[in-house]
Structure formats: structure tokens, C-alpha cells
Specification:
The protein has 217 residues and is an alpha+beta fold. The protein is globular. The N and C termini lie far apart (72 Å). A 4-stranded antiparallel beta sheet has the order 3-4-6-5, with helices on one face.
Length: 217
Amino acid sequence: RTGWRPDKTVSIAIQETRGHILRLLKRYQGLTVSELADELEISPMGVRQHLAVLERDGLVSYTREKPQRGRPVHRYHLTKEADRLFPNSYENFALSILRAISHIDGEDHLQELFQERFNTQKRNYSEKLNGKGLKEKVEILAQIRDAEGYMTETETDGNKLYLHEYNCPIYGVVSEYSHACEAELRLFREILDTEVVRECHIRKGDHVCTYSIEINE
């Protein structure tokens, strides 16, 4: 007996669409069906079908929002389970190593370790940014960070540049060791050679780390 089997290309397209939905929800918290349909260029009904599967799998949830006029709308968000699908740089392994170092050699040695990571990052980043203007530096930095799994994009608003990072691949590490977060802020200031302010912070509960950079050129 033979039965109908879905075309492999159709299955791949479905998986790609759901993956796209997850990436959109990672980048932009709280999207409606209509907003997702516009981004994906598919029908709202198609979006609902994909969301139903993702909700069943425990990857998305929604909150009800009642506007001043009209019917309530559902805004979809990623669950903690979905966050595990994004790059995490083997954070469990890294955490176990850091805990062992702290236990065996003490806090001072751990600080030295984070300083060495800082020095290596600064050296690697600086090689790519050397001789560039501030705007170009920020764009190159965004490309580097995006390739490292931070889901990074830039924005210009008046005399400020913004660096948005929608994923933290070392979230487990920075949750336990704040040194890594503070080192990254210091790193940005030194390689860009200007003041950088962290306005939003994933570690403190925001859905994005946002850095503002004054344009002095």
C-alpha cells in the first residue's frame, strides 16, 4: 500500500518558515499575527498554522493586549525553551570550567582569565577596525558580533548610533559572572575610542542589549 508523502521541498520550506518566525520573535518581542504575516509575506491563516505548531511544541506563547478600540490582539513571544535553540557557545561546559577555576585557584585567577579574554577580543577586533571612521567601525563590529551569534544590527537616530544585540550566546556565563558583561562594555569603549552607553541589558531582563554611541565625526 502506498500513501501520500509530502514533497521534501515543501517540508523544508515549512521548517524554514517556522525558523524565520522564531528568529523574528527573538529579534522583535511581542509580534502579532498580522505583523508576522507582513514580515513573512504569507497569509495570516498560514502564520496561525505555524504558530499553533510552535505553541504545541512549547516554543512560543502569547499575551492578550486590549487596545483602546477594537478587538483584543495576541502578541507572540518566545519561551525559555525556544531560547535554547539559539547559539549559546557551549555555556554549560564553560560554566563548569569557570566554577572549577574559581574553586581551585580563587577569584583573583578568575579575574585574570576574563582579562585575558578581553585582551584577545580587543586584539582581534582592533585588527579589523583599525583606520576606519566611527560609523564604519560600528558596522564592522556589528558584523563580527553577528557572526559570533549575538544577532546584531545597527540603527542611526540623529547624532547617535545604536548597536542592538538580540541574543546573548554566553547568557549562562554572564548570569553568574558579571565580569564578562562589564568587560564587553569596556571593550566597546576602547575599540571604538568613544563613550558607549548600555541602555538595555538582557542580563537585567530586557529582550535586547542596546548600546548607544555618540557620533562625533
